[in-house]
Amino acid sequence: MNTLILRTVAPGLTALMLLFSIFVLLRGHNEPGGGFIGGLIAASALAIYGIAFGVGAVRRAMRFHPMTIAGAGLFMSTISGLVSILFGVPFMTGLWIYPSFLGAEVPLSTVMSFDLGVYLVVLGSIVSIALALEQDSEPEEQAVAPLPSPAELRPEVKKRRDPRRRAKESR
Amino acid sequence: MAAMGPALTFCALFLPFVGALAAPFAITRFGDRGAWLLALFPALAFMHFCGFLPEIAAGEVATGGYAWAPSFNLSFSWFLDGLSLTFSLLITGIGTLIVIYSGAYMNGHPQQGRFLSFILLFMGAMLGLVVSDSFLMLFIYWELTSVSSFLLIGFDHEREAARRAALQALIVTGGGGLCLLAGLVFLWNITGVTQLSLLVHLGDALRQSPFYLAALLLVLAGAFTKSAQFPFHFWLPNAMEAPAPVSAYLHSATMVKAGVYLLMRLNPVMGDTPAWEILLPFFGGLTLLTGTMLGLRQTDMKLILAYTTVASLGLLVMLTGFGSPHAIQAAVLYLLAHSLFKGALFMVAGAVDHETGMRDVTRLAGLRTAMPVTFLAALLAALSMGGLPLFFGFLAKEEIYLALWSGNPRAVFFTLLAVIGNALMFALAFAVALKPFIGRRAAATAGVHEGPLMLLLGPVLLAVLGLVAALAPGLSHRYISSPMASAITDEKTVIDITTMPHWGMPLLLSVLTVLLGLLVYWRIDAARAGMLRVLESLGPGPDRGFDILVAGLIRFSVLVTRLLQPGRLEIYVTATFIMLAVALLVPLFVFGEMPALPAWPRDMLIQEAAFLAIALIGIIAVLRAKDRLTAIVSLGIQGFAVAVIFLLFGAPDLSFTQFMVETLSVVILTLVMTRLRLDPSDHRPLGQMLPDAVIAIACGLGFTLLLLRSLEVPFDMRLTEFFNAYSKVIAHGANVVNVIIVDFRGTDTLGEISVVMITGLAVLALIRVRAGRRAP
Amino acid sequence: MEVLFAVLIGCFFGAAIYLMLSKHTVRILLGVALLGNGVNLLLFTTGRLVREVPPIIPAGLDTLAPGTANPLPQALILTAIVISFSFFAFLLVLTYRAYQELGTDDSDDMRLAEPRDEPLPPMGY
């Protein structure tokens, strides 16, 4: 779906949706929301980005393989459950702390990190599925390069890169 | 020492298993001589068990064990009395000799280490069997001996005959083991105990139980299959496919006696009833006759010995069930004598086979000069088997005739049986042990020489022991025979028979036996030919029946598989949903649980009704869609309608999730479906549509009725109230749904996200697996 | 109100099962998707319907106000939605790959593992 409108709107939309997904995740304990919904929103955001720019762009933007992210999430959730061992309470018992941050009390809990793990698993797995399908269905040569981001267009960036490369080559 | 006792016994019980693990390495490292090292394992256990002799002879028992699953009253516990101890000594003692013998017999075989490993594995299993106190442990070891026997019979698995024999032995003895398990469960149910040592005192309760006969028949099925009693005798001669050490150890000295052991062990509890005293002597006597008659036909040394083993086992079962203390004493003496002479004779047969490459008694002759030591061992063992004075076999035979001969018609019948059986065994003993060694040396055996020390040690020691034990009867009776007989009869028994012949009926019968035996030996070729003619006129035996059974089983399973798994998905699915419809509708009708006809809902709001209608339209559109893209879009319609319905009924979390899922579903469906180039229309023909529709409507109706019915009973609010009460107070969360997911039921959620993750991995694997497929 | 839900759920199940009885794997897939929604609605309705008030404890209170929706089925359904989605995705990919390898979506033609004229197993030992 190589349309100009989509390609223009997609980066902003993706960024907004990702932000929104984290918002939904964090407020989940007291308002509608939570890890499952947050993860799904984030996955849709990346799917939209993928439809606009192709799979390669999403993979570059994510830096890690989606299944790595999912694995990290599962690990995080398991660890959140295991923390209770240190305090001699049963597996998966929620533990809370209330550190003060800039004068405001911030409630933190293993429950919250557990939910964050859920978010990552859902995000990672579903993005992985979607990307695998997209990549499989699009011929390699037609893969579309993403629009250059403003940062990449700035000349300083290129200049900063070039001397390093030249230095390497001269060595 | 007293405190260390149980731990040491525990170690002794597991020594053979340790040896089994070490065997392949020992053989790889040291070659044949590794067998000496491996023999240390059973030898150590033998010495440990010897330490119990004075204690047991004094009438005590040694017990020990560890709790395993106390809540089920299961324990790993052992129980050593005269019976168990004698068996333990036979197993470890003969086992030591067998391991050494195997070192030479199997020399150069590429799988020698594996063979020794199996032998030691069997040894551990058999040792566990005879010392087990708990029923379950007995059963597990019982089946383990069957499995290790399977491995050893099929050791030469490249030959079909060996595979067949192994499978046959496993099916017969393993099947019997299952019967035994059922029998043990019966015993447990009747008496309420799971330990043999406790069972002893409950014999009267057991014998009066209405389930006594059922329990007895099941236990007998286990014992008779293991001990190769008629009509299950056929597996034992076939098991001679195994190498000679296996025949000597498993199939004469130890494993096949497990059935006899069980009968002896249960004699105080289940014996002394008419059923016991009819079934055991009858089947035992029949087996004695069958074994000797069939043995007469054979010319292969090992097969002759195998059939005499069948006969001996029959004799033992007959004596155990005869029901007099003298018969038990006779069984004890005969069991000991048999283990010694038959083990020796099998090893002799193996040695002859190893040196000459032949086992046919009609072709072997004149080996006495080439193999003098082997000949000596064979002769000593045969004299014991023939029951001639000065040997242990003589003691056993005297005791047998003493026990059987009491004048009444039953006794006369069984005495006659025993005389015929013993006479034939006498003849067969010398056919195996004398015939190949005397006469003019056959040309085929030129250049044959005596086997190495490792091959001679076993037969010579066992054969000599049969002489020594009889010459020192005080010692052997005091420590071995009397405690064993006491354990079987459950009262103090003293055996005092000696080798000095004493005048009387038993001696007369002995003389008769020997004369008869000599007659048969003299005319053995004629007897063999006659027996062949008789058997031909009788037709095929149970061995052929086994083949028919197995072939029939395979055909039957093919038939069932083709019927139930024709390979067409729609048939499986149709069957599943017909069953679902039946399961949903039939109980509603049969139990009168039909819901009352509900009133038309008047409280429905317009927007709710609208979204229900949209969902319905979406469903209909999916069904009626001509091409797949339309179907996908219609799928989206019902999905979003469901999301809105969730929102309208107080479930915003569900609603959002459903929205996102529907969006993603449509996206990935579109991604895939546009790539599939399928026929534009795939509607099913009317003939298929109608039955499908009927099944579908029946299931749908079933769910509607079930839901209506379940809505008529009040909802159980206890769980909801629990979550409601503690969500804020303990779990600090106001969104109860989220608190349930991440806190109260967090472990469930952990499982669920694992499933999501696994699906992700599976999809990735499915997509990736194409790389490298169809390599040219 | 529940009555109409019961009828709708019956329709969901009926349609899902009708689709799953098809020979074509794509239709079966659509049936599985419908079945998931049917099951979710069934759970939802069994937990009784309450209009519009989500199970969220209002500020200042320790428990839910009376008349709010039942949170228990919602918690069950929420995870069920996500799981049935990932299951659906897996089936979809399976169908897709089967089509790529076998060139058909007709389950009758997929006889690779269970060929039509399979010979008898060996009768020996």
TrEMBL record, chain A:
The keyword Transmembrane applies. Residues 136-171 are annotated as: Disordered. Residues 5-127 form the Na+/H+ antiporter MnhB subunit-related protein domain. InterPro entries: CPA3_antiporter_subunitB, MnhB. One of its GO terms (cellular component) is plasma membrane. It is a multi-pass membrane protein. Residues 157-171 have a biased composition (Basic residues). Keywords: Cell membrane, Membrane, Transmembrane, Transmembrane helix. It is found in: Cell membrane. It comes from the Bacteria. The chain crosses the membrane at residues 12-29, 35-58, 70-96, 116-133. Coiled coil: none annotated. Belongs to the CPA3 antiporters (TC 2.A.63) subunit B family. PANTHER family: NA(+)/H(+) ANTIPORTER SUBUNIT B (PTHR33932), NA(+)_H(+) ANTIPORTER SUBUNIT B (PTHR33932:SF4). NCBIfam families: PRK12509.1, PRK12573.1. This is Na+/H+ antiporter subunit B. It comes from Rhizobium deserti.
UniProtKB/TrEMBL annotation, chain B:
Residues 71-115 form the NADH-Ubiquinone oxidoreductase (complex I) chain 5 N-terminal domain. Residues 614-677 form the MrpA C-terminal/MbhD domain. Pfam families: MbhD, MbhE, Proton_antipo_M, Proton_antipo_N. Residues 691-768 form the MrpA C-terminal/MbhE domain. One of its GO terms (biological process) is monoatomic ion transport. Its main location: membrane. One of its GO terms (cellular component) is plasma membrane. One of its GO terms (molecular function) is antiporter activity. It is a multi-pass membrane protein. The chain crosses the membrane at residues 78-101, 113-132, 167-191, 211-236, 278-296, 303-322, 328-352, 373-392, 412-434, 455-475, 503-524, 571-592, 604-623, 629-649, 656-673, 693-711, 753-771. Keywords: Antiport, Cell membrane, Ion transport, Membrane, Transmembrane, Transmembrane helix, Transport. It is found in: Cell membrane; Membrane. The keyword Transmembrane helix applies. InterPro entries: CPA3_Na-H_Antiporter_A, MrpA_C/MbhD, MrpA_C/MbhE, ND/Mrp_TM, Proton_antipo_N. Residues 132-415 form the NADH:quinone oxidoreductase/Mrp antiporter transmembrane domain. NCBIfam families: PRK12647.1. This is Putative monovalent cation/H+ antiporter subunit A. It comes from Rhizobium deserti. The lineage of its organism: Bacteria, Pseudomonadati, Pseudomonadota, Alphaproteobacteria, Hyphomicrobiales.
UniProtKB/TrEMBL annotation, chain C:
Pfam families: Oxidored_q2. GO terms for cellular component: plasma membrane. Keywords: Cell membrane, Membrane, Transmembrane, Transmembrane helix. It comes from the Bacteria. It is found in: Cell membrane. The keyword Transmembrane applies. The chain crosses the membrane at residues 6-21, 28-45, 75-94. It is a multi-pass membrane protein. Belongs to the CPA3 antiporters (TC 2.A.63) subunit C family. This is Na+/H+ antiporter subunit C. It comes from Rhizobium deserti.
